[in-house]
């Protein structure tokens, strides 16, 4: 709803506040910030498990640089996030979609 301050979609919001030529860049930057936030949260969870990056890497069977990359948000695939969480001590990791009360386990 343009001009009301209530937006049903991201595009409605961008249409009101961002020049057309800048919209794609704004979307890309927003996605980058979200990924960085997710990576930072993974780092927090690792620290709460009292593990350093070296130990997380050893448990995952990857390099410390790879763990740093994951924690920076540069790889947010579900498989990588699941492997990371299992390596830092989570017993199970699942992604469930819910629609109209129906649950579907995805991963």
UniProtKB/TrEMBL annotation:
SMART domains per UniProt: HTH_XRE
**Known Gene3D superfamilies for this protein?**
lambda repressor-like DNA-binding domains
Q: Which residues form the HTH cro/C1-type domain?
A: 42-95
Q: Which Pfam families match?
A: HTH_31
Listed PROSITE patterns: HTH_CROC1 (PS50943)
Name of the protein this chain belongs to: HTH cro/C1-type domain-containing protein
Please report the organism this UniProt entry assigns to the protein: Streptomyces sannanensis
The taxonomic lineage of its organism, from the top, reads: Bacteria, Bacillati, Actinomycetota, Actinomycetes, Kitasatosporales
């Amino acid at each position: 709803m343009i001009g009301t301050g209530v937006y049903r979609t991201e595009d409605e919001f961008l249409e009101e506040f961002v020049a057309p030529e800048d919209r794609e860049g704004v979307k890309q930057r927003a996605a980058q910030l979200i990924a960085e936030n997710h990576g930072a949260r993974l780092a927090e969870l690792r620290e709460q498990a009292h593990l350093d990056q070296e130990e997380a890497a050893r448990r995952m069977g990857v390099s410390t640089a790879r763990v740093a990359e994951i924690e920076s948000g540069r790889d947010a695939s579900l498989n990588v996030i699941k492997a990371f969480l299992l390596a830092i001590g989570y017993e199970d990791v699942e992604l469930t979609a819910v629609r109209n009360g129906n649950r579907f386990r995805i991963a």
